[in-house]
Amino acid sequence: MSSVPRRHTGVRAAGAALAATAALLVAGLSGSASAGTAGAATPSAPTAAETLRTDAAPPALLSAMQRDLGLDRQQARQRLANEAEAGAVAGRLRAALGADFAGAWVRGAESGTLTVATTDAGDVAAIEAQGAEAEVVRHSLADLDAAKARLDRAAAGRDTSGAPVWYVDPRTNTLVVEAVRPAEARSLLAAAGVDTSLARVESRTERPRTFYDLRGGEAYYINNSGRCSIGFPITKGTQQGFATAGHCGRAGASTSGANRVAQGTFQGSTFPGLDMAWVAANASWTATPYVNGAGGQSVQVTGSTQAPVGSSVCRSGSTTGWHCGTVQQLNTSVSYQEGTVSGVTRTTVCAEPGDSGGSYISGSQAQGVTSGGSGNCSSGGETFFQPINPLLANYGLTLKTSGDGGPGPEEPPPGGTWTVGKVYQAGDTVTYGGATYRCLQGHQAQPGWEPSNVPALWQRA
């Protein structure tokens, strides 16, 4: 594996195109710009903040952000808008920089600064043209992700309780292994054949756990015994139900609501490896595009666009209710007593027994379902969530959003490949309206989010 910075041919042309469109700055955000290359969308195309409906953030979510992140109401609103715009800018730069790209993150009370890392100093001008700060580093994100994949394979079937968490950290440009016993971390890295220049071992005192022992609050019961929290309401064709954590129940297990009324049955469940499941509800239950907020307020869900590292994220759980924090790392692996789970997102949000399966949301965008963590909401802690988009894709589910039930999208021209309900990842390409588009941010396609209409999510290829 080479760690020598590589020059990405063609980045100058990409940088020129990006510079030509870096016109629209959201107040306070360094790293926010108008979307797309020339001709990618009409002048009336919505901004990222408009697309992701940051204006729809309800009082319950804003209040939790104020309490947990030390913000006032205006700062909370501005932070959500900045994070939406930063995600779109980071997506465009990732596409432009190609193999040089080494990650992106936001920082500041209002997420007012976007940093984009690259392995090539020649990319700095293109990054700064978009209003972002540039950081030149040694390793590309692709190299770090490949090293983590080797670590995941080496951990399979191995006792990793002494080194229970590992992840790619773009802010330090390293693969980090957190260990209760550092010697075990070094042994795991050696078994994976990971270059020591790529990795760093950090100490931790607690081992993460799944939140099985459920106590009170809004919940659902499994086989009239254990309890978990509902994640996000979904549909699968005409079937209604909800997404939740795999460790909450196995396929075939029955569920009942917090009111003890028969509710449904687990249709699919994966744990460990992943931590995802879905429950098909009976005719007595109706999927709604809401998450339970503080004081019983409804928080609407309008989509599932993935939030960047450093973004604010809030969790709703049956035991501790609403709590907020920030996204620390994507693509994290964590070892529980039951086994290793990969691909989860690490956060600073607290949780306690009873919160498993519950919702993580950034603004109005669904992020994932609670997997596990350490600590609690009195002394502080960390949590990991199973991202929602892989869950939706794995089981063929459609997230219930507040746009459901309205007029459907216009039929795409014959031969168009963009499809409502499909989960797209950054870099995917589709055709729509006779043009080819590249996905900038992972999301599930919703009515009204046609590629020509949402430059925050799609760019003309």
Topology (SSEs and partners):
Layout: H1 11-20, H2 48-51, H3 59-69, H4 73-97, E1 101-107, E2 113-118, H5 124-129, E3 133-136, H6 141-155, E4 165-169, E5 174-179, H7 182-192, E6 199-203, E7 209-210, E8 220-222, E9 226-228, E10 232-236, E11 239-244, E12 254-257, E13 262-270, E14 276-281, E15 290-292, E16 298-300, E17 312-317, E18 321-336, E19 339-347, E20 359-362, E21 365-376, E22 380-387, H8 388-395, E23 398-399, E24 423-424, E25 429-432, E26 435-439, E27 443-444, E28 458-460
Parallel strand pairs: 2-3, 5-6
Antiparallel strand pairs: 1-2, 4-5, 4-18, 7-21, 8-9, 8-12, 10-11, 10-23, 11-14, 12-13, 13-14, 15-16, 17-18, 17-20, 18-19, 19-22, 20-21, 21-22, 24-27, 25-26, 26-28
Helix pairs in contact: 1-4, 3-4, 6-7
What does this structure look like?
- The chain has four domains: 11-136, GMP Synthetase, Chain A, domain 3, CATH 3.30.300.50; 141-203, GMP Synthetase, Chain A, domain 3; 212-399, Trypsin-like serine proteases (Thrombin, subunit H, Beta Barrel), CATH 2.40.10.10; 423-460, Seminal Fluid Protein  PDC-109 (Domain B).
- The chain has helices at 11-20, 48-51, 59-69, 73-97, 124-129, 141-155, 182-192, 388-395; strands at 101-107, 113-118, 133-136, 165-169, 174-179, 199-203, 209-210, 220-222, 226-228, 232-236, 239-244, 254-257, 262-270, 276-281, 290-292, 298-300, 312-317, 321-336, 339-347, 359-362, 365-376, 380-387, 398-399, 423-424, 429-432, 435-439, 443-444, 458-460.
- A hairpin with a 2-residue loop joins strand 20 and strand 21.
- The protein is an alpha+beta fold and 461 residues long.
- Mean pLDDT is 86; it is low at 1-42, 211-217 and 405-410.
- The strands form six sheets. It has an eight-stranded antiparallel beta sheet with strand order 9-8-12-13-14-11-10-23.
- 20% of the residues lie in helices and 33% in strands.
- The chain has eight helices and 28 strands.
- The chain is globular, with a radius of gyration of 21 Å.
